[in-house]
Design goal:
Elements (H helix, E strand, L loop, with lengths): L1 H58 L2 H6 L11 H12 L5 E3 L5 E8 L2 E7 L2 E10 L2 E10 L6 E6 L27 H8 L6 E7 L5 E8 L5 H4 L8 E6 L2 E5 L10 E2 L1
Antiparallel strand pairs: 1-2, 2-3, 2-11, 3-4, 4-5, 5-6, 7-8, 8-9, 9-10
């Protein structure tokens, strides 16, 4: 009986140990499974976060913004033609396409913050991203380059709703005269002939500063007025948080845009 009791006891101990090992073994497996699940979740979360960031970045890129400019703001070039321009330019090829009139439109320059187009032989269009605090707005300039033409400057929020309260520079034409190189008599003579000119606006400068360049455009077909150009100077205005500040410069700011 003693031997039988001892045998039963040993059997119980053996079964107990076996069950314990089974439990601890699967407990470890369960723990590993939990860890794997946590790791998978972290990977999925990081992937989604990265994808969201890349998607948001792509949507805020100058290429995407240009491609989706509303047709009422840029009616001359349709979306497919804009995409063609971007593909050609980004491939470092001559970026030309047809506008809605069947003539040639060319992408002249592109940088991370702006696009410049030759819409027709006598007109240009420029898109510029501008900072106003934490927000970004868009500026569009449509310039007619014929005699009597001018630049139309407009601003939009990120939903392409027009912003009406931007105070634009409005210099008098006499301010474009370079008075350091002329006499008072010559100044009066030049001022009396400025009615034949018009003001053209262009965004210039690198990506560290947003600078609006204003200059008087002379009728190139009028020989007598072409001599005016050497007596005129451009005016520059820095965009700082929604306000234009005039800047005196000796040389024109270099542009960060590149031309093909």
């Amino acid at each position: 009986k003693s031997d039988n009791r001892q045998s039963e006891y040993m059997k119980k101990v053996f079964l107990h140990n076996k069950r314990w090992k089974f439990f601890t073994h699967h407990q470890n497996d369960f723990g590993l499974s939990i860890n794997h699940m946590i790791n998978y979740k972290n990977i999925i979360f990081a992937t989604l976060l990265t994808w969201s960031y890349l998607t948001a970045t792509a949507q805020n890129s100058i290429d995407s913004i240009f491609a989706y400019v509303p047709s009422e703001i840029l009616p001359m070039i349709e979306k497919n033609e804009r995409l063609d321009l971007l593909d050609l330019y980004n491939s470092q090829m001559e970026a030309k396409t047809e506008n809605i009139f069947g003539s040639t439109a060319t992408m002249l320059m592109k940088s991370p913050t702006q696009v410049l187009l030759q819409l027709t032989s006598v007109s240009k269009w420029q898109l510029k991203m501008l900072k106003t605090g934490k927000d970004t707005i868009y500026s569009c300039i449509h310039s007619i380059e014929t005699a009597g033409g001018q630049s139309h400057l407009s601003f939009y929020d990120q939903n392409w709703k027009k912003i009406e309260n931007v105070a634009l520079p409005s210099p008098e034409k006499e301010e474009f005269i370079n008075r350091q190189q002329i006499t008072d008599e010559t100044n009066d003579s030049i001022a009396s002939r400025l009615y034949l000119t018009h003001i053209q606006a262009t965004w210039v400068g690198d990506n560290t500063q947003d600078i609006l360049k204003l200059e008087l455009i002379i009728d190139s077909h009028n020989t007598s007025e072409k001599n005016l150009k050497k007596h005129l100077r451009p005016l520059f205005f820095i965009w700082e948080q929604g306000t234009f500040i005039e800047r005196q410069v000796q040389t024109e700011p270099s542009s960060s845009t590149s031309a093909i």
